[in-house]
Amino acid sequence: MKVSFFITCLGDIFYVNAGKAAVELLERLGCEIDFPRAQTCCGQPAYNSGYRKETIEVAKHLIETFDHSEYVVGISGSCVYMIHEYVHLFEDGSEWQKRAIDLKNKTYEFTQFIVDVLGIEDVGASYQAVATYHTSCHMTRLLGVKEAPFKLLSNVKGLKLVDLPNRQDCCGFGGTFSVKMSNISEQMVDEKVSHIQETEADLLLGADGSCLMNIGGRLTRKGIPVKVKHIAEILNSRGEA
Amino acid sequence: MPMHIGEKDFKARVSKGLQDDFMRGAVRSAQGRLQNNRANAAEELGDWEEWRTLGQQIRQHTVEHLDYYLHQLSEKVAELGGHVFFAETGEEANAYIQQVAKDKNAKKIAKSKSMVTEEISMNDALEDIGCEVIETDLGEYILQIDDHDPPSHIVAPALHKNKEQIRDVFHERLGYAKTEQPEELALFAREKLREEFLSADIGITGCNFAVAESGSFALVTNEGNARMVSTLPKTQITVMGMERIVPGWEELDIVVSLLTRAAVGQKLTSYITALTGPKQIGEADGPEEFHLVIVDNGRSRILGTEFQEALHCIRCAACINVCPVYRHVGGHAYGSIYPGPIGAVLSPLLSDYDEYKELPYASSLCGACTEVCPVKIPLHEQLIMHRRKIVEDEKKSTLSERLAMKGFEQIVQSANLYRTATKMAPFLTTPFSKNNVISKGPGPLRYWTDARDLPQPTQERFRDWFKQRSERGDSE
Known about the structure:
- Chain A: One of its GO terms (cellular component) is cytosol.
- Chain A: Belongs to the LutA/YkgE family.
- Chain A: Is involved in L-lactate degradation and allows cells to grow with lactate as the sole carbon source.
- Chain A: Pfam families: CCG.
- Chain A: One of its GO terms (biological process) is lactate metabolic process.
- The structure holds two protein chains of two kinds.
- By secondary structure, chain A is an alpha/beta fold.
- Chain A is built from 13 helices and eight strands.
- In chain A, the strands form two sheets. A four-stranded parallel beta sheet of chain A has the order 2-1-3-4, sandwiched between helices.
- In chain A, helix 7 crosses helix 9 and helix 11 crosses helix 12.
- The two termini of chain A are 31 Å apart.
- By secondary structure, chain B is of the alpha/beta class.
- Among the domains of chain B are: 49-301, Rossmann fold (3-Layer(aba) Sandwich), CATH 3.40.50; 399-472, no CATH class.
- In chain B, the strands form three sheets. Chain B has a six-stranded parallel beta sheet, sandwiched between helices.
- In chain B, strand 5 and strand 6 form a beta hairpin.
- The radius of gyration of chain B is 26 Å and the shape is elongated.
- The N and C termini of chain B lie far apart (67 Å).
- Chains A and B meet through helix 1, helix 2, helix 3, helix 4 and helix 8 of A and helix 1, helix 15, helix 18, helix 19 and helix 20 of B.
């Protein structure tokens, strides 16, 4: 199966290890990975700020970038959802909208792809840790991927997964929200951090680099020794702690 | 604008909210309770999603044919002997209500809960002509005796107060001498209010839903006060926002079920009162005179626009009860009698962007509101739509943001520029970094690093790793 990997802009410069792990795992599961080098950002910062015209230009660029891909797999639920939203940027019935629909139909979030397309729930991973998992809002509510990460994590040997209280609550990232309304965002991430502490887990997992960057940044600022990893890093593990 | 509450400056209101630990504690515990109740009540039905779809269809159909149903409603009310007044503005509505009060020589007016009368500041208008207005909803009553503290929630207006604060208000204003037990507080208010119902000249109610086919009005309460207000005084005035209408009783059944479950997690509230016109010949109860005031006040401007779905709202506050922003800042921070996600959508529409331009940004777009809305209003998408209007039509975004977005567009639609920018990122940020962590960011990044660390961009980007690996032929 041929898969074009979508690293996302944050993944490209901040979460290189998550990207490496995802590629290695997908290859082990039988996929042939390519990386279209023209790929950039999904355009979400502009879209969510109300800059539609600018978003359209970005969308066209990504549509062209992945034109010849069989599948596109991204490691952020939020960015994958943004790609699905491209359909609504173009006029109904237009050529660009058709291409946006094509891209939507072949673009998946990483855990969703493994469970729903490859039909695999046990990737043979093992990792010793007590972990909790942050469910990202866009991935669960908007993209609708709710179960896949839990199915995959439940089969990781040695991993003890503790429920995160109030896991449905946003971590307070919200893109430009975290900068524009930084004092409200801070209270939201603080609340998330206190729920993480309640679990007594020593590892926080998630499937969205942006949320992890937000929560992780608050954890280190407060000197709380909880490690933060992308789910791909755990699923690609073979016994190391 | 009458619907405005609190200080003018948004940031000042937010800071005040964030610093109010009592309020935040009260809101946090109320939200938790209401969220659980709602989720259980929805689950109990077994097919909640189908109910939501039905609710959406009913609201969409009704709002699309609003002219037809409003006509049908007003004909019915007139047939029954009631008076109907269409008010284009809040001022027109208030002037009509003032006139009725003058005609009746009214001194005391008992009122049940109504957001639209808050929206048009009806109480002020009546007090201006010397009437005494008594709020009879317990929450509204508490706020009224506490120096007219504004509501912070559309269903539970005094949600920002805890029971100790309520005890103190009752003690200071009314000489209450018992404990903060809710039962004792409620009993005390009940005794006080009973006198008011019996001595009021006019009763004023809001309207949860008008039923077009029969000219009836459904009032949903847990206290029974709307029933007292609408049966004891000789004259009744019902004030409704022009979209608060359903075609018939079958539709009413569905929207009321959605309302009570979504709002408070109840199958039904203790009282659901349906009133049809003034007292008819042979009837024992009801007002002798009935006035219906239908308020537009900006609603017809929303019809036919991309915001029309905002008029589908049934005022259940489920979106407010799940909103994490509301939880931390409280209702007053929104500066509008309509707070939370629906308030952030509605307030700029009913007023304008000058007054409420910050509200569409007071959301992380987490979508919790959209997920719980019982009539499927895409609330977070409406907030993005507002942002788009502010950027494109109102030109109210800042120059720095416009430049940043233009730059963003230029860079990310060009593979080359993007590659250069991401390659530069680790070098540009090195002066601000210590142990691969940026704790004091430059420029707008400082808003991020005020609260959290930022990892330093890695020297080896993912794309560099992938390229080298492919060249080495590592992949399986």
